[in-house]
Amino acid sequence: MVRAMTTQNEVRIPLDLLPADGRFGSGPSKVRVEALRALAETGSSYMGTSHRQATVKDVVARVRTGLSDLLRLPDGYEVLLGNGGATAFWDVAGFRLVRDHSRHAVFGEFSSKFAQAMQEAPHIAQVDVVESDPGTHPEMTAAAGVDAYCLTHNETSTGVAMPVARPAGADADALVLVDATSAAGGMEVDAAEFDVYYLSPQKALASEGGLWLAACSPAALARIDELADRWCPASLDLGIARDNSLKDQTYNTPALATIFLLAEQLDWLNTQGGLAWAQARTAESSGVLYDWAEAREWASPFVTDPAKRSTVVTTIDLADGIDATLVSKILRANGVVDTDAYRKLGRNQVRIATFPAITPDDCRALTACIDYVVEALAG
Prior knowledge:
2 domains, 7-stranded mixed β-sheet
């Protein structure tokens, strides 16, 4: 039983149990120290310079090429980018990718927000929702007339992964739009199964927020042109974003540090072995946590079906007698941060990122720390 008087400052975890790096947040996520050093070493040659000049445009080109290589994009696909993050991209898609009928797989906070954005858009005639309870994902089915199928590769709020696949029987010109914000760079994907794979880079790609990137198929690029006459704000115009991206720049001023850190992470991932390496790494780290939880009487994976468990965001329920919020506060007081549950899910759980930048050994150390905290609280 947890003692009522226990506070986060009463439990000191032995130093030899602590991970080498205590950052386990699901976004903003751990940024590799090597990338931060590389940014610092640019001195006055990069930060504080014009984003229209080669100094920055060369780094944007590194990002576009690096993401294309990582995703193994076929000829004809283009990597576009702009400001605002994945949240802004929902509106971008509504103006220039969804013709008038979208269909959404909804199984958590973030997948529901895209559907809501389309429901509120006056120019979208019909929005279908295929929904399942948190901790599961629905099976996306085709329907006549749908011109955009909207999937989420990894639901960050719940730790559920959904396969990326074109729905059988979909209309020939229907697009598949995939929110890949927490999956990109940490989970395998086949580019033939999507038309737009969009993300913001503050999760598996170990950068900062405020930027969106979208890997677009020839069909998606054609849809942008098809809807070019529909009014939209310039900052949300995917046609303008495309024209600027092909020049290795953004329409308006981006955060230069975000772009540089992203380029460093993409270079690192591709050098390590690309998506195959990243998938193996995240599977090892998340496997450490799932196996640990299943071996404890007081812990269990929130996602009960192993086939639906994310390899990049691991959610673990704790027994009612153990206050997960207090556990996370104690971990934070000991330098192990951002293990808190997603607030709107409302469960007594910890949520632990296992992105490629986070080492499997640090995940093993985290389990030892949680064991120590739980034992101290019970004592």
